[in-house]
Amino acid sequence: MTLSMSMAERRSNLRSVFAAQLLYACSPVLGMRLQTSVPNSPAQNQHVHLTTQTSMTAAAMPVLRTPMHPRSLLSMPSILRSAPLQMSASSLATADTNTAVPTTARIVFVASASPSAYGRTSPMPQPPWTEVAAHLASRLSNFDSRVLGVAFDEAEVGGADGRCTDAFMDAVRDADMVVALDVRSASAVSAIDFALQNAGSRVSAMVCSDCSEELSAMQFVGDYKVRAGSALEAAAMKLSMSLAPWGGVARGARLHAQAVSLLQRASSEDLVYACFFIIHAYVMPLPLVKHTISPTWEKGLGNLAEFYKMATCCGGPILRAVRDETTKKAIDMLNECDMRDQVGSYRVIVSFETPLLEAFSLCILQKNNCFNCNSEILRTPAVPVLSEWRGAPLTWETASQIFYGHLNIPQAHSAGARRDWSWKVVCGANPAYDAFPAQHQIFYPGKAKGSIWYDPVFKVETVDGRAVWRRRHYRVRRAGGTQKGTSNHEADADAPPGVWMLSTLDNGVISNERWTIVDAADDLSWVVFHYSGAASVVGQSYVGALLCTDTGQRNNAHPKPRPYPNLRAILS
Questions:
Q1: If DSSP codes are grouped into helix, strand and coil, which group holds residue 11?
Q2: What range(s) does the VDE lipocalin domain occupy (predicted)?
């Protein structure tokens, strides 16, 4: 018997063993723990939390009667190809009703007139809840034109004898979801209860933020209810979640917990995503939240296909990543959150940046797109571009000078303060990417004619309490024209000066962004930028806006040719 082995066989064995290690870590996908002959594997020590759902019933779930040897993983591609790997987004959205996918989704907001906790870093903080609700209702269609919203003041929904007004009843009857914000009055609670009881089966969810205890107990998402109708129903739901984590009750419970977590952050961005996750799950597929690199019950056996591709394409980078304590900690924390939660996931990423994490992401996501994600830059709302500055039409040269701002370089405008940075951020609209403290923006010319580079430098308060500085490096190009690398989107063919395309490699993932100079003071005392971006291979699209000055403080003492623009519309 020979002990020699060809290099190809060794690579094959290593690939099989590593795939088995990944499957061991991901055994909840099959509802069991797979037994392998790999002792003390790194993947066994990972706390990878999977939440996936498939259309299989408990009886249809596969069961392994004998231990699974790593060699058997060699046949996994054919097994995966023959298996129903996952439900499509549209089938997920209509699995419970088996009807055609709706063409629109409607969300009803009910809010009090009390001050909210929103806008903590805004020049106009603590807007009333009614204003938050109205703004969110109008903003939904910017992310997807098929999602519509309507807002009600809690004082306007109550009717006689515990009923609700006709207008509110009609709105709830046509709604797919109800969101209550700081609703505490007894009449409003009774009105919402009455409307839900008489609205029929169309409403898929009702969630609350800062509401009365009575109303909070009425929350439900799909088959999950916060307060069951009886002790027997409560026991049945608990048993269902335990025995069938892929089932409707467990699915609703996960979505409810996710919505509650997002609503507690008091940002319009997170509230929009909380609504979209539920609409996508129960009403119709939404491209904004369609893709996720997280393992989920909804993907079913598709999780195995993804992990097999990761193991075969990126075994080396994965092994090196999980062997490094800091990188493994980051991966474990990312596994615990939904990667569509851009606020939570990006905070983890900036907290634990390492070269190994970048190589891990570069291979799995950017080079091989193991999760088949594809997201595009959002084109709505159509943000106005500054057309005139200092009494003259904006040109690419003057638009560049606005970018350079106060940086101490010869190309900057003479109105600049000649600092070590171009701008500092007063406040931002997106809590994931532009709400960091001490944000310095540095725009500077490149060597090629007309080229610009952008280096944001920002302070991060990490998830484990540290304070660290981070830096990014963007290439800046004009959106229109013939400059190499400009946008090829038809809407940008004739983009005016002030519209730019930016790109960067952020921890192994390429992000592309479309920036617009919305407005700027003639003396450069302030500027407003808007951006819309996408990290395509992660399945993320995002929008944001920035109010900047030379100091990062509101320049109330500065003479301003005109007041700040309508920041509420752009920055919230």
A1: helix
A2: 311-552
Produce one character per residue of 430-465: b if its CB has 16 or more CB atoms within 10 Å, e if not. Answer: bbbbbbbeebbbbbbbeeeeebbebbbbbebeeeee
pLDDT above 90 coverage of the chain, percent? 50
Host domain of residue 302: 7-86+294-367
Number of domains observed in the structure of the chain: 3
Size of the chain in residues: 572
Mean predicted confidence (pLDDT) in 447-475: 92
Tokens matching residue 494: 């004739």
Give the model's confidence band at 301: pLDDT under 50 very low, under 70 low, under 90 confident, else very high.
confident
Phi/psi class of residue 126: alpha, beta or left (left: φ > 0; alpha: ψ in -120 to 50)?
left
For 192-218, how does the pLDDT look when each residue is reduced to its tens digit (9 = 90+)? 999 999 998 899 999 999 999 999 999
CA atoms within 13 A on the CB side of 302: 24
Q: What is the mean pLDDT of the chain?
A: 79
Instruction: Say if residue 428 is in the same domain as residue 534.
Output: yes
Residue 468 near residue 458, CB atoms below 8 Å: no
Per-residue 3-state assignment (H helix, E strand, C coil) for 273-294: HHHHHHHHHHCCCCHHHCCCCC
Alpha helices for 44-119 (secondary structure H): 76-82, 89-94
Tokens in use for 281? 């799950």
Q: What is the pLDDT of residues 350-386, one digit of tens each?
A: 999 999 999 999 999 999 999 888 989 998 878 899 9
Mean pLDDT value across residues 424-437? 82
- At residue 31, the pLDDT reads 32
For the segment 151-169, the average pLDDT, to the nearest whole number, is 92
How many beta carbons lie within 10 A of that of residue 3, not counting itself? 4
169 with 200, same domain? yes
CB–CB of 275/262 below 8 Å? no
User: Does residue 67 share a domain with residue 24?
Assistant: yes
Residue of 89, 44, 50 lying closest to 337 (CA atoms): 50
pLDDT of residue 120: 75
The pair phi, psi for residue 536, each rounded to 5°, is -55, -45
CB 512 within 8 A of CB 502: yes
Q: If you write DSSP's letter for every residue of 165-213 in order, what string do you get?
A: -HHHHHHHHT-SEEEEES---HHHHHHHHHHHHTS-S---EEEEES--H
Question: Which pLDDT score is estimated for 286?
Answer: 92
- Within 10 angstroms of residue 497's Cβ, the number of other Cβ atoms is 23
Q: Is residue 177 in a domain?
A: yes
Q: Cα separation of 298 and 563, whole Å?
A: 49
User: What is the mean pLDDT of the segment spanning 64-93?
Assistant: 35
Bond into 381 cis (ω within 30): yes
pLDDT at 430: 83
The whole-angstrom separation of Cα 283 and Cα 272 is: 15
Residue 289 lies in a domain: no
Instruction: Give me the phi and psi of 428, to 5 degrees please.
Output: -130, 165
